[in-house]
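Predict the 3D structure for this chain.
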Amino acid sequence: MYKGTSRNESHAMQFTILCFSDLPHLQIPLFIIFLTIYLNVIFGNTAVLFAIVSDPHLHTPMYILLSNLSVLDISYISTTLPNLLIMLSTQHKIMSLVGCITQMYFFIFFACMEMNILAVMAYDRYVAVCHPLHYTVLMSLRTCLVVIISIWFAALLEPVSFTILVANLSFCSSNQIDHFFCDVSPLLKLSCSDTTYVNMATYILGALVGMSTFFMTLVSYIYIVFNIMNIHSVVGRSKTFSTCASHLTSVLLYYGTTMSLYMRPTSMYSPSQDKFFSLLYIVLIPLLNPVIYTLKNKQFKDAFKKLINILCFVKNM
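Done. Predicted structure below.
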């Protein structure tokens, strides 16, 4: 165990990521499972991305936002899973403080971006359902691109101050992180500094980004539900709801897991519980999103058929 209180000592420190050390007999099976999941996430989201790019009929705000979600899901899972696979296969579980802080920054960045993009997608569905005649004006391609650039830029800046605060903490109680990546709660548990301001920054970041995007998403769906209830035709209600069902499923999955994990005091940190919920939103959501958004989407099915035909033609050549 390493102990040190000075800033220089804390910056030279290395962490041991415990991963799933309590399951030594499952290291190889876990490696195979996570590798299979990772490859499926890459393949599924890349297929969605190529289908959207290759089909001009899908060059609309809704699908442009979805293509960004696919890029985001690939980036999100790539922040943690490749390093986890290396640790499971080699049992080399050492990470420097700089590496740990860097991983934490990108993890928070992609988490903020996920919430941003889900909120904008909810607004897109609100405009499509509640203001269909003004959709091309309120959600034009130009507006969509400006919004996408803005939320990516905002997501880059949102974790900066929080990351700087964490980087200036001293870590002296232990060098063992009981998690499979450098998450906020287990990292703060190791600090011997006063973490009051960091905890405050956590709640501020959660309120500014998490709660604001959740509120925007919630309000959008309240209006959508009221609009659907005013449709007299059962077929019309079903058809309108089907345009939002995939996104609503994705939203419930994401916020359900993240809120249960992060909207609580750090004193209630439980390693086994946190690993489980972290796996749900890091691994399960990027894996399911391509299925959720394409399973009952006729336009996507047609686009995939065209993409497969193009690939077969290129292969035959």
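The radius of gyration is 22 Å.
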